[in-house]
C-alpha cells in the first residue's frame, strides 16, 4: 500500500512532462539533424526502439511477421527519409511527432543506421 502514493506521484510527473513536451515539440525544427552515430547514441536508440518500435518492427529489428517494414533493410544513406517517416508516419506507420522527446529520432537513427551497432 505504501507504493501506491509513489506510483501516483510518478504518474503525475510523467503526465506533466508529457504535456510540457507536447508544447515544445510541435516544431519539426526541434528535431536535431542526424549526426555521426556513437555507441552512447546507439544504446539510447535501442532503449527507445524497444519501448516504441519493437512491438511492430520486432525485437532487434527482426520482424516476426511480414506486415511491417524490415528496418534492417532501410537505406543507411537516407536519414532524411527516416526522420520524415518517423515524424509524420507513412500508411500504417503512425506519426511519432508528439510521442518522442526531442533528439529521440537521432538516437533511433543511430540504432537503425548501424544495424543495431553492428556496422559502426
Ligand atoms: C503500429 C505499428 C508500428 C510502430 C509502433 C512503428 N512502426 Fe514503423 N512502420 C510500420 C509499418 C506498417 C510500416 C510500413 C509503412 C509502409 O511503407 O506502408 C513502417 C515503416 C517504417 C519505416 C520505413 C518508412 C519508409 O520511409 O519507407 C521506418 C523507417 C520505420 N517504420 C521506423 C519506425 C520507428 C523508428 C519506430 C519507433 C519510433 C516505428 N517505426 C514504430 C508500423 C509501425
Order of helices and strands: HHHHH
**Backbone CA Rg:** 16 Å
The CATH architecture of the domain at 31-113 can be named as Orthogonal Bundle
CATH superfamily of the domain at 31-113: Cytochrome c-like domain
Describe the largest sheet: none
CATH class of the domain at 31-113: Mainly Alpha
Shape: globular
Bound molecules: heme C
Q: Roughly how many Å apart are the termini?
A: 47 Å
Instruction: Classify the beta-strand content into a percent band.
Output: under 5%
Strands, total number: 0
In helices, the fraction of residues equals: 40-55%
Class from helix and strand fractions: mainly alpha
Provide a descriptive summary of the structure in words.
It comes from Polaromonas vacuolata. Pfam families: Cytochrome_CBB3 (PF13442). The chain is mainly alpha-helical and 120 residues long. It is built from five helices and no strands. The protein has a domain of 83 residues: Orthogonal Bundle (Cytochrome Bc1 Complex, Chain D, domain 2). The longest helix has 23 residues. The radius of gyration is 16 Å and the shape is globular. The termini are far apart. Bound molecules: heme C (HEC). Heme C binds next to helix 3 and helix 4.
What's the quick description here?
51% of the residues lie in helices and 0% in strands. The protein is mainly alpha-helical and 120 residues long. The chain has a domain of 83 residues: Cytochrome c-like domain (Cytochrome Bc1 Complex, Chain D, domain 2, Orthogonal Bundle), CATH 1.10.760.
Amino acid at each position: 500500500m505504501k507504493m501506491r502514493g509513489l506510483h501516483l506521484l510518478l504518474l503525475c510527473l510523467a503526465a506533466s512532462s508529457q504535456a510540457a513536451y507536447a508544447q515544445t515539440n510541435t516544431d519539426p525544427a526541434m528535431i536535431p539533424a542526424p549526426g555521426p552515430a556513437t555507441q552512447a547514441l546507439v544504446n539510447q536508440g535501442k532503449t527507445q526502439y524497444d519501448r516504441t518500435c519493437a512491438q511492430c518492427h520486432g525485437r532487434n529489428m527482426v520482424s516476426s511477421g511480414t506486415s511491417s517494414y524490415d528496418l534492417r533493410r532501410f537505406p543507411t544513406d537516407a536519414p532524411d527519409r527516416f526522420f520524415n517517416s518517423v515524424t509524420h508516419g507513412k500508411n500504417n506507420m503512425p506519426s511519432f511527432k508528439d510521442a518522442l522527446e526531442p533528439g529521440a529520432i537521432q538516437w533511433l537513427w543511430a540504432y537503425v543506421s548501424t544495424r543495431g551497432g553492428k556496422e559502426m
